[in-house]
Amino acid sequence: QVQLVESGGGLVQAGGSLRLSCAASGRTFSNLIMGWFRQAPGKEREFVAEISWNGVGTYYMDSVKGRFTISKDNTKNTVYLQMNSLKPEDTAVYYCAARLYRDYEYWGQGTQVTVSS
Question: Which of 9, 36, 49, 59 has its CA 20 to 30 A from that of 102?
């Protein structure tokens, strides 16, 4: 089992920045592939970013490339999502997730990000 706890959400003006954190416990963190997803009101949950178990490989949805950066600190059992140049369309609940194999099987409770115009 893996427990994930997100933090760092909040209200920010368009063009601003936030850094989300996700602390993991319960399993060897360094083996986990970590991801961030988001869900806006009335929309389906969507993939935002992913980082490989060793932090070398990163992947992003097209609309956040160049603005968001995912990183992983295996010494702190924490994954981060640095979000810059935020837009109102980035408003959503952001979820941290973890997987060992193909499918994401562990999820956090989510943290709200609201970007005002």
Answer: 9
Distance (Å, whole) CA 104 – CA 81 = 17
82: tokens are 């640095």
Q: Could you tell me which residues are beta bridge partners of residue 72?
A: 79
The model's pLDDT over 67-93, given as tens digits with 9 standing for 90+, comes to 999 999 999 999 999 999 999 999 999
Residue 75 CB-half CA count within 13 A: 0
Alpha-carbon torsion angle 22, 26, 30, 34, nearest 10: -40
Q: Which amino acid is at 1?
A: Q
Q: Are 31 and 53 in contact (CB under 8 A)?
A: yes
Token pair of 110, please? Answer: 């989510």
Q: How confident is the model at residue 1 (pLDDT cuts 50, 70, 90)?
A: confident
- State how far the alpha carbon of 104 is from the alpha carbons of 26, 86, 113, in Å: 16, 26, 22
